[in-house]
Write a structure and sequence with these properties.
Blueprint: H1 27-36, E1 47-48, E2 54-55, H2 61-160
Antiparallel strand pairs: 1-2
GO cellular component, one term: synaptonemal complex
InterPro entries: XLR/SYCP3, XLR/SYCP3/FAM9_dom
Family: Belongs to the XLR/SYCP3 family.
């Protein structure tokens, strides 16, 4: 194919080299500069009155904007105070609720522990009484056995004589 003499066909490429006159854009510095500059709004267009007629600019808008911003900040501050008060109430109610729940749990646990101890004590007493009765019965049976053996020996001796 023969060359047509054109250099760039299609989209032009981006330049990789920066123009030294332009400099680089620093977003951080730009935001700092914006934050540091005071807010000034000036109107160059006339203000319209109630009837829609234009009237010339009547006063400093800077003060109006400042007042509006001040009012907004005061409302925002009041909202923050309300939110903090609500948070404190919530925290207090939560802590009171947790304390109450802990007291109820401790009370139930103490009651159950007392009932368990009483049940164990009653069971131990019944078990001890059963063992004592069993021991008494065994002694009585042994005594009867001895008496029976003596009686059988005496009857055997009397039959032999």
């Amino acid at each position: 194919m023969a060359s047509t003499g054109r250099k760039g066909v299609g989209r032009p490429r981006r330049r990789t080299m920066q123009d030294p006159k332009m400099g680089t854009y620093d977003k951080k510095r730009s935001l700092q500069n914006v934050a540091m500059t005071p807010l000034k709004i000036t109107r160059k267009t006339p203000v319209t009155d109630k009837n829609g007629r234009k009237r010339p600019y009547a006063g400093p808008v800077e003060e109006e904007v400042g007042d509006e911003v001040q009012n907004m900040l005061e409302r925002f501050g009041a909202d923050i105070k309300k939110a903090l008060i609500a948070k404190r109430r919530f925290d207090m109610n939560t802590s009171d609720s947790v304390k109450s729940s802990n007291q109820n749990i401790e009370h139930v646990w103490k009651t159950q522990k007392e009932q368990w101890q009483k049940l164990t004590r009653d069971y131990s007493q019944q078990f001890l009484a059963l063992f004592q009765q069993c021991h008494t019965d065994i002694k009585r049976v042994e005594e009867q056995e001895v008496k029976l053996i003596v009686g059988i020996r005496l009857s055997c001796i009397s039959n032999l004589l």
